[in-house]
Structure prediction request, 211 residues.
Amino acid sequence: MYVDEYLVVLDKPAGLLAVPGIGPAKQDCLAARAQAMWPDARVVHRLDQATSGLIVMARGRAMQRALAMAFERREVSKRYVAVVAGAIEAFDGWREIDLPIMADWPNRPLQKVDAAHGRASTTRWRVAAALPQALEREQDATRVELQPLTGRTHQLRVHLSAVGHPILGDPLYAPAEARGAAARLMLHASELEFAHPATGEPIAFASRAPF
Prediction:
């Protein structure tokens, strides 16, 4: 979606790994494809394989450090669109899900909410305007907008499942009915905004959800 001498912004399709996995069959990924075009492109953050949407990669080590620090200091604004199970009435403003998350070690790669040992995790969410056309007749689904304030593994998926509204098509955290309600995980990284690591100027990108 954007490239200059300092960074590349990409729109990842669902089903493509963000970074290489284990074994020769999992080497095709967004990072490898980007590095074939821009050999100095370096990973800064990731999306789950099943999630589509915006990813920024740095060009060179200095830019990688600068962007990684921006993520660590929560200076990067990220927004997602999802379709979740359940009919949720619209409400004013944003609400927060504040539930600590940790790895579910016996069931990796699953994560779980754990009040005693989990890491602090916060997600802001609100009801969006309309359902995807394919689901517009459904009474049991709602389109929502999400803003993670922390970056835990599977955070959005775990948080929405924990409050009783799992993301449709989620093979890990949705019960069978919600899992089978969509052909893919209905989660898309739709907006990305941060200060350019070289100029300091604010830059923003948007990607329309494909559902």
The first strand starts at residue 2 and ends at 3. Residues 62 and 156 are 30 Å apart (CA to CA).
